[in-house]
């Protein structure tokens, strides 16, 4: 009888927990036909809705709106010009109708124009004091404890763990070590092109021009995983149509693979917006019925927050 | 008196060897003010001319010309159309005058149009049998043994080692593990955009369209190091103007940093094409007098192949 401590103590016993334990057991046992050598043990995690709360809005959107408000005094024309006017007014109905061009314009003015180091400081300062309206706690405390346990369990089993987010790579990197124990090179995300320049003293600096280089969502995820890592991951975790292609790419590889989707079905402890709920689709990805059907057809694991998670946040006892 | 074996046995005693040993010693000694925690120990190496022979032509060019010859029977029009005609004829004088558009066209037809896995097989098959005209040995044996020792020494000292090459990322990844013990995620290079698609059975595949995403040379190197790794390396090794900005970016960080350039000054055992030699400039980067002057002014280490290296290739005894 094993006396090893449970690596996933915040998980209820069930199919999802069993699938994770079984996958790690067989891929790390050299006598198992599904053994994977350590060099190839790669796992990828979506962030928004998979590692932390994404409702009622993405954390990075809260950041962008605050940046917009901070910059507004220098731009009086924003008060009468879209998409700035609606964004500054916090008009979420108008926001939901913004085009990709509108959003890119808002990203440009709030995320570009400074050095890479300057942006890192802006994000780190903001996220230190910003709070989620429902829990009145820092966003960085609204991380799912069960998923932190999976990340830690995979790492201690020789897996390299990467965050693969539709959010901004530089944004996430600014807090990823503190929150996820992830180094900058372990965060793959949407990216502006950096631009090499010299400052007035002749020192090399990288600027952030308003030019999107990687849009790391949907098909962008497998494309960027290939760019950064060169092959499909062995395990992938997501929660929406923005992760669908990442999971399909994961499954396209041979040997043992683990695909899992977090289903938000707990409107008491968090939110419910999956299939069957009073659904709140987002512009960027949702757990649609179509995705649910694909998950079932392809043998992906669906993680029910309500049934599979004993507790959701680290601060809960 | 220390009895530890010399980690750099193929190096002669001298300033370059001493600088490498000193850098590693002080950045890994927790009592030293220049100590660097293990998470931040990152070193980057250029490939062509820094890790292996780049004369009289880049290995990848030999690959491209062979691919062109293999594909030529299906393209009779190439016999009369530039840049194909000169490239197929191996006309190096014409080749030296090709524009970037010409080169991109040649890359497109020889490096694109297949799946990512298909390209990997093509490269692996080619490099297994192709030989360098001077030594009549596989290109993968023309690796500099002293640099392999530096890579190994850094790794065993807790450094993460990355290849940062102007060459094709997918090309280098096809042999990087066998030759450099580098995993795919440890190779950053010029890249085509991958394109996510489904094959006829509905399985996810990545195709290689003829579309350049990253040109990883000169300013592209620090830009892509930031994209992949999120901060400047602690140590960087190069050999040409294509590495200048990578070294400047390395030096822009605080604390101990090691910048080094390999100088090709040994026309007996390899080639001599640095400043003061009968110089053979390449289109893509050269060790110019200007770069030499910058190295001296900024305190970069210049590694003389002739004076600093006891032996050059692993097969030499």
Order of helices and strands of chain A: HEHHHHHHEHEEEEHEHEHEH
- pLDDT < 50 stretches of chain A: none
What is the assembly state of the chains in this entry?
homodimer
The main sheet of chain A orders its strands as: 6-3-2-1-7-8-9
Q: Count of DSSP helices of chain A?
A: 12
Largest interface: A-B, 37 and 37 residues
Structural class of chain A: alpha/beta
Q: What is the CATH class of the domain at 15-55 and 143-191 and 213-308 in chain A?
A: Alpha Beta
Task: Name the CATH superfamily assignment of the domain at 15-55 and 143-191 and 213-308 in chain A.
Answer: HAD superfamily/HAD-like
Total count of strands of chain A = 9
CATH topology of the domain at 15-55 and 143-191 and 213-308 in chain A: Rossmann fold
CATH architecture of the domain at 15-55 and 143-191 and 213-308 in chain A: 3-Layer(aba) Sandwich
Mean pLDDT over the full residue set of chain A? 94
Chart the SSEs and their pairings.
The structure is a homodimer of 317-residue chains.
Chain A: H1 15-27, E1 42-45, H2 59-71, H3 84-88, H4 92-96, H5 100-111, H6 116-129, H7 145-156, E2 160-168, H8 169-180, E3 187-192, E4 195-198, E5 204-207, E6 212-214, H9 220-229, E7 235-238, H10 244-252, E8 258-263, H11 289-298, E9 301-304, H12 305-308
Helix pairs in contact in A: 2-5, 6-8, 9-10
């Amino acid at each position: 009888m094993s006396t090893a401590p449970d690596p996933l103590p915040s998980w209820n016993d069930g199919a999802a927990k069993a699938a994770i334990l079984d996958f790690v057991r067989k891929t790390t046992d050299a006598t198992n036909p599904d053994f994977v050598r350590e060099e190839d043990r790669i796992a990828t995690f979506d962030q928004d809705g998979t590692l932390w709360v994404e409702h009622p809005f993405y954390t990075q959107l809260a950041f962008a709106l605050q940046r917009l408000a901070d910059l507004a005094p220098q731009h009086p024309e924003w008060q009468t010009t879209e998409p700035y006017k609606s964004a500054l007014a916090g008009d979420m109905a108008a926001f939901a109708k913004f085009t990709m061009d509108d959003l890119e314009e808002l990203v440009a003015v709030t995320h570009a124009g400074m050095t890479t180091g300057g942006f890192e400081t802006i994000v780190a300062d903001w996220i230190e004091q910003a709070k989620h309206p429902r829990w009145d706690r820092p966003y960085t405390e609204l991380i799912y404890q069960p998923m932190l346990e999976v990340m830690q369990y995979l790492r201690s089993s020789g897996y390299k763990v990467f965050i693969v987010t539709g959010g901004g790579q530089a944004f996430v990197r600014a807090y990823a070590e503190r929150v996820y124990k992830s180094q900058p090179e372990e965060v793959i995300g949407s990216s502006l092109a950096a631009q090499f320049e010299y400052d007035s003293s002749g020192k090399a600096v990288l600027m952030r021009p308003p030019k999107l280089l990687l849009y790391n969502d949907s098909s962008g995820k497998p494309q960027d995983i290939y760019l950064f890592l060169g092959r499909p991951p062995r395990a992938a975790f997501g929660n929406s149509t923005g992760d669908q292609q990442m999971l399909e790419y994961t499954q396209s590889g041979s040997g043992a693979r683990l695909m899992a989707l977090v289903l938000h079905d707990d409107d008491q402890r968090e939110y419910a917006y999956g299939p069957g709920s009073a659904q709140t689709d987002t512009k960027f990805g949702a757990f649609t019925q179509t995705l649910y059907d694909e998950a079932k057809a392809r043998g992906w694991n669906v993680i029910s927050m309500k049934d599979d998670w004993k507790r959701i946040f680290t601060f809960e006892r």
